[in-house]
Amino acid sequence: MTSFTVSVREHGRLNLPKSLRAALHLQDQDDLIFRVRPDGVAEVVSATTLARRGTGLFAHLKQHDSETDDFLAERRAEADQ
After folding, report:
1. Fewest CB within 10 A of the end CB: N or C in the chain?
2. Is 34 helix (H, G, I), strand (E, B) or coil?
3. 44: part of which helix (H) or strand (E)?
């Protein structure tokens, strides 16, 4: 794990060091998500990374044998005849 020190400036502004931006793969205008646990520990993740993590998150819910898909395929086949 790598640690970075970031100072809070006037009006709550943060100046992220270049090495931190590189580690997070941040680009200009990227959003950061701060999640704070009840014990005060914070996790910072880019919105892009969070979205990538979520890709396929619900894939296990997809039914492989969909009756609706089968029905529609049959109707399309009939219409093509």
Report:
1. N
2. strand
3. strand 42-46
Count up the domains in the chain and report the number.
Answer: 1
Q: Are 42 and 36 in contact (CB under 8 A)?
A: yes
Distance of alpha carbon 45 from alpha carbon 30, whole angstroms: 11
Contact 35, 46 (CB under 8 A): no
Q: Residue 76's domain spans which residues?
A: 10-80
In a domain, 2, yes or no: no
| Confidence band for 14, pLDDT divided at 50, 70 and 90 | very high
Specify the DSSP class assigned to residue 38: T
61 part of a folded domain: yes
Q: Is the pLDDT of residue 2 over 70?
A: yes
pTM above 0.70, yes or no: no
Contacts by 61-64, CB closer than 8 A, 24 or more apart = none
